[in-house]
């Protein structure tokens, strides 16, 4: 029936005769662009056939080995690092955040020593701090008796301030600057102030050796701290950072003690890291409360989310919108939550599979600092007369800081793919061309030859298949009542 018609059609139309198939194989071997095959087929000498067969098989084996090695190298995700130094006519000045090492006004904390400890607990979300057992009872008594006490407002009002009495001189690239050019920010050092913050137009310098010149009066008699908690120094600590990023001290700030003149030479370094799996960055990660991604900003937002979920409030020192935590929650919930986050590794930094992977682009400002004793004898006398202060006061309270670019250039450190897709294809093509004389056209020829033979094999197997029983027409297969009766009579 139908199967017979299909067979006859396949035999007449699609399946060539044996002689035609042999002729097709012969023509392919003679005309293919895969070098060496026609020498095996056309030569009459058996010795030459064997030699050419060995040559072709050997070259093919070497090509496959080389191609496999290139693929293995590619999937090891190799990278190279290039360093480029770019010289420019002007360069953007970084943001600089300054803090007094003595965090609080002495008159405000003279009868309130517990404030130093409270601020360390509050800022513990930024820098790990362990509360000793001997302070626990004192803390509990204060918190129970002062539940409406706001450490935020107390610190902002009674911490270090920046005005004409604490900032005696300020000059940027030959032009005067003032305390209102600085923006207030909370850090583990309490009240700090940032010059060239993100809300202002970008400041640029067009000459190396000139930049920001500052003269601070730390006023040791008016500002104090608690030596028992490790705050034993007097002076100014500062950190340089991108205007779009938050300042990060955490032991990374530069210290300038009183009576010293710090000369700070900075360079601009831009690091570009490849995305995973070549590098450790993830370009699709965006932060909710920061304009650009940074590991420090990501870490703060991660801590803020966990603390808000656990405690139902948000520390004012962390970014986000939520109910501000009071002191009681800081001590009983936020502080243990931060400890739990660090112990369990809930907010990790570094690799691609961590909570906060490395930034794809990061701006850094390496610094070189040199110090000299503040002022000679004549300079001390001049300042003493100008400020109406004693020479001893000047040596014990004044800090001079000069921050400038080393040169008008920036360095770009870029991580690059050691082998791209196009280079991998070029390597594969080069190996095939060198050892086999093959190209993309040759591969298409081979695919066409394989597909044609596969089709012929399928047709051949279909023609050799047994006839299918006619299950769908049982009346034609089963004998009728008359046929049964006739058969019995014949028997």
Walk me through the topology.
Blueprint: H1 2-14, H2 18-31, H3 37-42, H4 46-74, E1 79-87, E2 91-92, E3 95-100, E4 104-105, H5 106-109, H6 114-122, H7 136-145, H8 151-158, E5 167-172, E6 175-176, E7 182-187, E8 190-195, E9 204-205, E10 211-217, E11 223-224, E12 235-241, E13 254-257, E14 260-272, H9 295-311, H10 327-344, E15 349-350, E16 356-357, E17 361-364, E18 367-373, H11 377-387, H12 391-397, E19 398-417, H13 421-436, H14 440-463, H15 474-477, H16 481-490
Parallel strand pairs: 14-19, 15-16
Antiparallel strand pairs: 1-19, 2-9, 3-8, 3-12, 4-11, 5-6, 5-10, 7-8, 10-19, 12-13, 14-17, 14-18
Helix pairs in contact: 1-14, 4-13, 9-10
Q: What is this entry, summarized?
A:
The protein is of the alpha+beta class. 41% of the residues lie in helices and 22% in strands. Strand 5 and strand 6 form a beta hairpin.
Strand content: 15-25%
How far the N terminus sits from the C terminus, by CA atoms, comes to 32 Å
Largest sheet properties: 8 strands, mixed
Poorly predicted runs: 467-478, 480-491
Please, how many helices? 16
Percent range for helical residues?
A: 40-55%
Tally of DSSP β-strands:
19
* Global outline: elongated
Structural Rg: 41 Å
Coarse structural class:
alpha+beta
Overall pLDDT, averaged? 83
């Amino acid at each position: 029936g139908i199967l017979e018609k299909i067979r006859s059609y396949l035999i007449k139309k699609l399946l060539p005769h044996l002689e035609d198939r042999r002729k097709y194989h012969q023509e392919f071997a003679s005309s293919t662009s895969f070098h060496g095959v026609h020498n095996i087929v056309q030569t009459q000498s058996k010795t030459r056939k064997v030699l050419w067969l060995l040559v072709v098989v050997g070259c093919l084996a070497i090509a496959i080995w080389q191609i496999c090695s290139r693929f293995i190298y590619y999937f090891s995700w190799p990278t190279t690092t290039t360093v480029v130094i770019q010289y420019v006519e002007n360069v953007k000045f970084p943001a600089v955040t300054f803090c007094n090492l003595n965090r609080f006004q002495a008159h405000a904390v003279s009868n309130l020593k517990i404030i130093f400890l409270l601020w360390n607990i509050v800022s513990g979300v930024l820098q790990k701090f362990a509360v000793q057992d001997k302070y626990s009872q004192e803390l509990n008594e204060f918190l129970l008796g002062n539940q409406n006490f706001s450490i935020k407002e107390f610190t902002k009002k009674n911490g270090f301030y920046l005005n004409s009495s604490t900032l005696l001189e300020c000059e940027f690239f030959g032009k005067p600057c003032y305390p209102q050019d600085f923006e207030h920010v909370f850090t583990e050092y309490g009240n700090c102030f940032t010059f060239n913050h993100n809300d202002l137009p970008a400041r640029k310098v067009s000459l190396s050796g000139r930049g920001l010149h500052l003269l601070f009066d730390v006023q040791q008699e008016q500002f104090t701290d608690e030596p028992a908690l490790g705050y034993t120094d007097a002076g100014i600590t500062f950190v340089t950072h991108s205007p779009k990023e938050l300042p990060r001290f955490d032991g990374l700030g530069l210290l300038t003690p009183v009576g010293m003149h710090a000369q700070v030479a900075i360079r601009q370094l831009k690091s570009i890291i490849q995305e995973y799996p070549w590098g450790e960055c993830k370009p699709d990660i965006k932060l909710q409360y920061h304009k650009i991604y940074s590991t420090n900003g990501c870490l703060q937002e991660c801590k803020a989310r966990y603390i808000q979920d656990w405690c139902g409030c948000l520390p004012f020192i962390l970014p986000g919108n939520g109910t501000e935590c009071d002191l009681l929650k800081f001590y009983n919930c936020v502080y243990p939550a931060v400890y739990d986050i660090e112990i369990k590794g809930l907010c990790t930094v570094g690799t691609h599979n961590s909570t906060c992977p490395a930034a794809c682009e990061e701006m850094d400002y390496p610094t070189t600092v040199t110090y000299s004793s503040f002022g000679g004898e004549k300079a001390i006398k001049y300042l003493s007369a100008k400020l109406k202060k004693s020479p001893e006061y000047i040596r014990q309270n004044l800090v001079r800081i000069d921050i400038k670019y080393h040169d008008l250039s920036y360095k770009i450190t870029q991580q690059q793919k050691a082998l791209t897709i196009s280079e991998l294809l070029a390597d594969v093509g080069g190996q095939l061309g060198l050892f086999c004389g093959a190209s993309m056209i040759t591969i298409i020829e081979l695919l066409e030859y394989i597909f044609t033979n596969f089709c012929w094999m399928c047709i051949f197997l279909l023609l050799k298949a047994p006839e299918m029983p006619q299950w769908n027409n049982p009346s034609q297969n089963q004998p009728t009542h008359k046929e049964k009766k006739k058969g019995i009579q014949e028997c």
